[in-house]
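Hey,
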Amino acid sequence: MADGAAETAGRIRDLDRVLTFVDAIVAIAITLLVLPLVELASEVRDGGRVSNLLHDHSEELWSFALSFYVIARI
């Protein structure tokens, strides 16, 4: 009986490790998605308007939102 309990505890520990690893991968992927947005922010800082930025880069922002959603759902 003790062997079964130890085996179950080992499996739970392994599952926790896998979930932690997956969480780390998702966090890195989302961070990599955000980095290009930082470059876009310089356009606004240099005297551009936010509405122009959103219009000019609407496809990129849409793909960012979709990718963020898909990764977050994982």
